[in-house]
Amino acid sequence: xxxxxxxxxxxxxxxxxxxxxxxxxxxxxxxxxxxxxxxxxxxxxxxxxxxxxxxxxxxxxxxxxxxxxxxxxxxxxxxxxxxxxxxxxxxxxxxxxxxxxxxxxxxxxxxxxxxxxxxxxxxxxxxxxxxxxxxxxxxxxxxxxxxxxxxxxxxxxxxxxxxxxxxxxxxxxxxxxxxxxxxxxxxxxxxxxxxxxxxxxxxxxxxxxxxxxxxxxxxxxxxxxxxxxxxxxxxxxxxxxxxxxxxxxxxxxxxxxxxxxxxxxxxxxxxxxxxxxxxxxxxxxxxxxxxxxxxxxxxxxxxxxxxxxxxxxxxxxxxxxxxxxxxxxxxxxxxxxxxxxxxxxxxxxxxxxxxxxxxxxxxxxxxxxxxxxxxxxxxxxxxxxxxxxxxxxxxxxxxxxxxxxxxxxxxxxxxxxxxxxxxxxxxxxxxxxxxxxxxxxxxxxxxxxxxxxxxxxxxxxxxxxxxxxxxxxxxxxxxxxxxxxxxxxxxxxxxxxxxxxxxxxxxxxxxxxxxxxxxxxxxxxxxxxxxxxxxxxxxxxxxxxxxxxxxxxxxxxxxxxxxxxxxxxxxxxxxxxxxxxxxxxxxxxxxxxxxxxxxxxxxxxxxxxxxxxxxxxxxxxxxxxxxxxxxxxxxxxxxxxxxxxxxxxxxxxxxxxxxxxxxxxxxxxxxxxxxxxxxxxxxxxxxxxxxxxxxxxxxxxxxxxxxxxxxxxxxxxxxxxxxx
Length: 724
Ligand code: SF4
Hints:
Layout lengths: L19 E6 L8 E6 L5 E6 L12 H4 L15 E2 L8 E2 L2 H19 L4 E5 L5 H15 L4 E3 L6 H11 L16 E5 L3 H4 L1 H13 L4 E4 L5 H4 L3 E3 L6 H14 L5 H7 E2 L1 H8 L4 H8 L3 H13 L3 E5 L1 H4 L4 H14 L9 E4 L6 H7 L14 H11 L14 H9 L5 E5 L3 H4 L3 H10 L2 E6 L12 E4 L8 E4 L4 E5 L12 H9 L12 H12 L11 H7 L2 E2 L26 E2 L18 E6 L15 H4 L6 E4 L1 H7 L6 E5 L4 E8 L7 E5 L26 E7 L3 H12 L2
Parallel strand pairs: 6-7, 6-14, 8-9, 8-12, 9-10, 11-20, 12-13, 14-15, 15-16, 21-25, 22-24
Antiparallel strand pairs: 1-2, 2-3, 4-5, 4-16, 17-18, 18-19, 21-26, 22-25, 23-24, 23-26
Helix pairs in contact: 3-15, 3-20, 3-21, 4-14, 8-11, 8-12, 8-14, 11-12, 17-19
The site of iron/sulfur cluster has 14 residues, from α1 and α6.
């Protein structure tokens, strides 16, 4: 008897009354999932679904994407422009003209009094590529400040820097399809199931079809490490030593692809000389991985027909972040694993359009991967934009992480912050507070008026969010995808594109600004013709039809390009990739008697960045509402710290109160804290900068832990960090 079979109710999905689906692209992480947003008959966004024939996500979304339509009307959205005479006075509502006029006049006043570079702009990885391009034109060609950068310095600048040093250009050379071709995957400091869940689905599907070893390097037993064939719990901040040692074994045992090295790389001799010093026994004493295991991994990687490495912030957010990326590139160059199916160095980018800003914002140079240091590039852009060539600086200005100290010293007096929240995302919160108070003028442009940084502003511009506007994002695998305008901007908020155009009208200049994003896109297509970063064949309709297209895509191309450097020709002048020796200097802050634990930080699946958006979405925030730390149960017992209680973390920079979650994910000398919460891990982090990328060391520092007697007071303090 089939007991009860006919009595079961089928699962019913609530009818949301959708009358129309609109195509768009997820605005959270860099995976680049295609989404359709369902509108009801009133035109309200009521649901989201993955697009089945989109190659990236194949119908899937993670929980952030599933609830993304809730952003349009979520709490804290900016309704109208706001202004106040003095910081911390009550804001007064203003018209757009008043807010824009005031900001333009403050920019001019500050620049006239203190020089052009005394006004800085810090942007984001979250707005559309056309908006980045337009902001770049405004910053470089009209306002003329060289202190202009993006928050990608906090997440991806080590990757960009490492690619430039090794290959002569930024641009990830691989793609998700490489999972299906690889014979070995090395993941360093990348916890895909939580950070990029849909890329993880792609990896898992590939592993089910074709079994290949998954090797995870991470100090913590992350979700990805739990599923790995081999987990290497490396000592924080010592990835370069491990990578040098892998190269040592490969060269010593003759496992390298010598023909590829000789044909396509330079500086072989100095590289070999350096890695000769990194025998596995010596390396093991620094990086904490057993010497035989180093040999085993090196052999496995080198003997695989095709092998690839992916990484995220575990590599980038370190004082040796750029070297870590170069170390990965070195490994793949000596094994001939660049530009071939399944063989690549693929940085898994963070924000939805971190790639777009790297490509087109002019933050680190000029649009289309052009450099300020290159006279030819300055000339091309000056002519195209109708700007005097001499108006451009001849080298890039300060990175985001150097702009804030320059405010402290008085070099910078005014700041425009766009879709980023440094009061939570920058290290050393107490110092940041003083820095922001030193500014003569701060304008904050954000979709949310309750973003912490806005507490310090004089003017607030309410920006449209995600699919309240139209334009493109580029994902991790160089795929340009389209976000259609799904609903109108909330109340009086405006697309960032509109705000930049309106600001340009308030300055004297000779530059033209297209009226819509498609016009800006067409300028980018024109500027990219014949370059590695070739957009010339892309159109909005073609992008939507193909559900995203990978550049380079020239005018006569029929398909996007899944990989770069397939011919072994790189972007350095000699067309070779550089093998770069990486001497390791152990300058990490390490645990000691006073601060006996490593403090590690990272993401949780429910939240994105500083929770400006996800902290407002019920189905995300309710599953991860509290700042907490993972702590090994043995270590907790020794200190008298109980699971579920509050404890105090203290570093040489500050303290924070978190809830304790005991778990074997972390070793007895380490704790892990999610980075999303205000007044939490960034009160503690070290924040010293990588010399090449200027990216901060967020992840490796020394901390002490104390139980808290007054749990009631601790709960109040912990709640303050939750904010929303
Ligand atoms: Fe959006 Fe990333 Fe989730 Fe895809 S994986 S739905 S891009 S947050």
